[in-house]
Design goal:
Elements (H helix, E strand, L loop, with lengths): L2 E5 L6 E5 L22 E2 L4 H8 L6 E6 L4 H16 L5 E6 L4 H6 L7 E6 L2 E7 L4 H11 L2
Parallel strand pairs: 3-5, 4-5
Antiparallel strand pairs: 1-2, 4-6, 6-7
């Protein structure tokens, strides 16, 4: 049976999400809370859930720091969503609204949006700022998240 890795937004545990469970409710093996579907762009509302996600030890995390008032950010949203779907189980993708989470944006030294950061085991391994073509962005993410 094929499975994809996903992370519980409640407790931070890495779980195997069976492909055959599409359309069904799948819960965390540790805390029993519902799991996000692999390939979804995650947007946790709480800082604590974001911190657990960003410090995930098992999968690289691509963070999209954005603002709703930023036209290039809106251009990149579908690019990010398609990347998350293609790379499901290999990389976690999350969005952080810099207006809702200014402390987190400050912690990462975000000075412009969109800024994309790839973390591996909680350490920043790559960063890029601004909009780019889908192929260029995908190549950047693939090279950085090996």
């Amino acid at each position: 049976m094929d499975k994809f890795k996903t992370v519980c937004l409640n407790c931070g545990a890495v779980n195997a999400f069976p492909v055959s469970a599409e359309g069904k409710k799948v819960v965390c093996g540790r805390c029993r809370m519902p799991l996000p579907r692999p390939g979804e762009v995650l947007e946790p509302a709480e800082e604590g859930a974001l911190e657990k996600l960003l410090l995930n030890p098992s999968l690289p995390v691509l963070v999209d720091f954005y603002s709703n008032a930023c036209p290039p950010c809106r251009v990149m949203h579908p690019v990010i969503e398609r990347l998350a779907g293609r790379r499901r189980g290999e990389i976690l993708v999350t969005r952080v609204d810099v207006e809702r989470h200014p402390g987190l944006a400050s912690k990462f030294g975000i000075q412009a949006t969109p800024t994309f950061v790839i973390l591996n085991r909680g350490y920043e391994i790559a960063r890029t700022t601004g909009a780019s073509s889908e192929s260029e962005f995908s190549l950047w993410a693939a090279g950085a998240a090996r």
